[in-house]
Write a structure and sequence with these properties.
There is one protein chain. The chain is mainly alpha-helical and 292 residues long. The chain has one domain. 59% of the residues lie in helices and 6% in strands. The relative contact order is 0.11.
Length: 292
């Protein structure tokens, strides 16, 4: 399986290299039509994207059978009167394929790689690997640089179309411009959507396969119950996000995790239970800590 994964990765990397080669060929065909700075910027974008593809593949860390969740008990107390039984929460935290008894929260098995990934987001076919806890930041940067590269090409082709007089070349450039526009819309949508997920601390797997993430239902149910005890009421269709700490903290978290050399992993279970507290309770806890 390991050899097949390596071969798969190399095939996709060659295809990506061929794709970026088209950009280089386009630059050579119109070498003297654009200023030197354009060619330099495009080369930087192209090489940066290829570097990030290699980096994303090497940065992803799979779950080993030695790992276990931070919380081992069957009950977690949120407050003095708020016991939360987590049997349902941890029921799916097991992988029989990888022979792992207890997976860290948000970890899931990738059917393509045949491995469990920490904070699994999705399997990226362009990368030929998984996007997870340790390489998600690189994935967002890759999408951003890819959009920048495409936008530079669109501006350059548009300027060239206005200046060129050869009709055959105009047809070719118009076709090329239309093709790049399609890729621009696709990559822009993918970037905005994935950036939104980072800002709200959600994953693609949790959005599209929520039925395989029972902790989301558990969180919403318990959160509504706790809030109802304090006089807050929410509709049945209202969904809470278990790991959303606010935009600023969500962004800082993904940067801190990538900068963490030991890659010890984020304690998602602690964030889960901390988020169950109501705002007044959080302030009281923080106040007590500060007083000590």
């Amino acid at each position: 399986m390991e050899n097949a994964a390596v071969i798969n990765f190399l095939i996709y990397m060659i295809l990506n290299y061929l794709g970026y080669s088209l950009v280089i060929i386009f630059q050579l065909l119109f070498l003297f039509s654009f200023p030197l700075i354009y060619h330099i910027i495009q080369l930087i974008f192209s090489n940066s994207c290829l570097y990030l593809l290699f980096k994303m593949h090497s940065e992803n860390i799979y779950v080993s059978n030695k790992l276990s969740p931070t919380i081992d008990s069957t009950e977690k107390v949120i407050g003095e009167t708020d016991p939360i039984v987590q049997n349902k929460l941890m029921a799916s935290n097991k992988c029989e394929i990888c022979n792992i008894e207890k997976l860290p929260l948000r970890s899931h098995h990738c059917q393509v790689c045949n491995k469990c990934v920490k904070c699994f987001d999705h399997h990226c076919w362009v990368l030929a690997g998984c996007i997870g806890e340790n390489n998600r930041l690189l994935f967002i940067i890759f999408l951003f640089l890819q959009n920048c590269s495409i936008d530079c090409s669109l501006v350059a082709i548009y300027i060239l179309l206005k200046e060129i007089t050869n009709e055959e070349m105009k047809y070719f450039l118009t076709f090329y411009f239309s093709l790049i526009c399609i890729f621009s819309v696709i990559f822009l949508f993918v970037f905005i959507y994935n950036f939104y997920l980072v800002l709200t601390n959600q994953t693609n797997f949790e959005i599209f396969y929520e039925e395989q993430c029972p902790y989301i239902d558990v969180f919403s149910f318990e959160k509504k119950k706790i809030m109802a005890q304090r006089g807050y009421n929410f509709g049945n269709n209202y969904r809470f996000r278990p790991f959303d700490l606010g935009i600023k903290k969500n962004i800082l978290m993904i940067f801190k995790q990538y900068m963490n050399k030991e890659k010890t992993g984020i304690k998602w279970d602690e964030i889960f239970y901390e988020n169950l507290k109501i705002p007044e309770e959080k302030k009281r806890c923080c106040g007590n800590k500060n007083n000590k």
